Amino acid sequence: MSITITTAPCCWGVDDVDNPNLPSWRLVLDEVAAAGFGGLELGPYGYMPLDLPLVSRELEKRDLFIVAGTIFDNLVDPKNRDSLLRQTDEICGLVSRLPQPRKRSGQRFPTPYLTVMDWGHDERDYAAGHGDRAPRLSDGDWAGMIANIEAIADLAAKRYGVRAVVHPHAGGYIEFADEIERLVADIPASAAGLCIDTGHAFYSGMDPVQTLEKYYPRLDYIHFKDIDPAKYREVMGRRIRFFEACAEGVMCPIGRGCIDYPAIRALLTRLGYEGYITVEQERDPRNSGGTLADVKASRSYLAGAGF
């Protein structure tokens, strides 16, 4: 398997850039390198500086690269289009010029990617994981969201050569099986790919192995997480936001939860996946002191599993 394992700032609790408890981005880079990863994602818009010489120097000092940037915002509201495109422009303008990893022979699109995720809706956040009670978008709102995604993907590809990959995310309006199916029907493969996240798939009631196989023709990039089964059962019985559940420990180091990684390895070997997989474990940033041990444990487990 020609696969490189990377990680992301969310392992240090970096999801909301306005959270006053976030660790320094330089500390994150230090610990990414210390854990043995060669690369990482940029993290949410506004976390790392958009200063090309500064970020390039800090990456090169640690022999790191950036595998992807992230749009994590309200994709539904048409009034948000200008902000989404500004973020796309600035993020892609940076990641496309930072130190780059080499392209794998079987990789469909070169890195860096732009992961695109919908977020910012209370009515869906509190229904994360509950497909039976989560409201769905009207046809008009869905069409508006698709138009926003296509505009992001078009700008990223045509101006910067960056491939946009849509990431179904618990608590957003692209989460459940019916929404992923509708998404791939409405956005052609030539416009954008998929980033399937094993943890979000499980959290939202899908089998990660089956989901990876079903959408493999559209799969350009993968996220790995694991889920503590006892905590998952407990939070599913409460009215709780997705990141509140993460703060309580619903995500755990890979290999200690209930996702079948030997089956995932067998599947990806059979399908011939080559490229990049990013390890994530969302948490409360006030608990980020435990991140280094956790990401080392995840990396060690995956190495033992043949990744």
TrEMBL record:
Family matches, as InterPro entries: IolE/XylAMocC-like, Xyl_isomerase-like_sf, Xyl_isomerase-like_TIM-brl
Domain of life: Bacteria
All residue ranges annotated as the Xylose isomerase-like TIM barrel domain in the record: 29-291
Protein name, UniProt field: Xylose isomerase-like TIM barrel domain-containing protein
